[in-house]
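Cont'd.
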Amino acid sequence: MNPISEALVWLNDPLNWQGSDGILALTGEHLWISFLAVLIACVIAWSLGLWLGHTGRGGNVVVVVSNASRAIPTLALLTILSSVSAWFFGTPATVISLAVFAIPPLLSNTYVGLRGVDPDVVDAARGMGLSSGQILWRVEVPLAIPLIAAGFRTAAVQVVATTTLAALVGGGGLGNIINLGLGQQKGGVILAGGFLVALLALVTEGVLAIVQKLVTPGKVRRRTAKPVTADPAGAAA
Amino acid sequence: MSNLQAVIPYGALHSDTTVLAGPADAPNPWLSWSYLQDNAPTILDHFLEHVTLTLESIVIATIIAVPLGLVASRIRWLAAPIIGVTGVMYTIPSLALFAALVPFTGLNNTPVVIGLVMYALLILVRNTVTGLDGVPADVRDAAQGMGYGSLKLFWQVDLPIALPSIMTGIRVATVSTVALVTVGAAVGSGGLGQLILQGFNQNFYRAQIVTASILCVVLALFADVLLATVTRLLSPWARRRAA
């Protein structure tokens, strides 16, 4: 039987969808791990990015962080963190290394978005008597939304894609199906797992593209938002 | 074992609970000189495989991407579909892509190189288009006025002007590729990634994991500096305008 029909047969078997190792449970786990990682990354990267962008400090740091992060293999960080100690092994190690990789696109887009706000607009707001906090939340952030949203989309898709690797280091998620197939040397199972993971990444990308459009204020939408990171949509890792 | 060099004091990071799945409490330094000495040939082999995989992927990707970029830049309506398709390929997780190719290629370097080429394409095509779009129309007009044919125009005007942008793409793609090669370990390829994954599976052999990881990062940074130097040598006129 060729791998494609084998994969179709495997995907058609209801038993493979149910249970704690089933496709549905693994998808849930995959999304949960991704969600936690993105949440942690957002808290750190957004607060840092808003602060640096608002004060105009640390531009070099942001550039260095986003460039250097590209050179670090995700697999290396995953295995190193998983090897730290027993209580860290598995999901905690996975979530933290994924969060580390989600920070650069979030941080650089937030920073650049805030720095890109026309200084005249900020001056005008200050002239109208807005406080520093009001300028940040009522002027700078709304104007930076397109870039912040683009960074979020990049980071989230990247995390969903990379969560696949968790299976290699004892974590959960859909990567387990690929791992299972590799272990059993079943081409169909490998292919089915690969298909499911790719589908999840593409669906995430599609959904977030719509979300990005919805959260972008109408007047800002017309300005084309260019992502600043060299990796546009989800860096596959 | 006298010359083991533990960077992080062992024990400081350990809890008392012993869990079956997880690193055990045995002497397990993060860096070890004896590991390096005993395994130098193996490490070198994997390092060279890593370099080869990266080189193959980037060279093939460049050969495909530059003509694609040229087409996208000259025939405007093709630009969106070309960038779109490469963008979709970029979104597919690497492990999924490598794994999905395995049933057709077997467990060897082929699925990894194919996958890495696909990932590098997006960055390279986009930068080629950006570079070619940045060629001033006046310059092309002047060259045409001097009797340059379209081939000569491409080689002697378009390509040199677009070169810094294309080289930037190659740099970014190379650094990402060096990091991504490691994932190939899951399908039996992957250079240093294999040392990382083997070290992990053999009772969390930290010295091996960390050594291979450091070599990866060093290789990526070295490649970046090397390519930056090459770019500067190839485009001396752009030195002052370098962004």
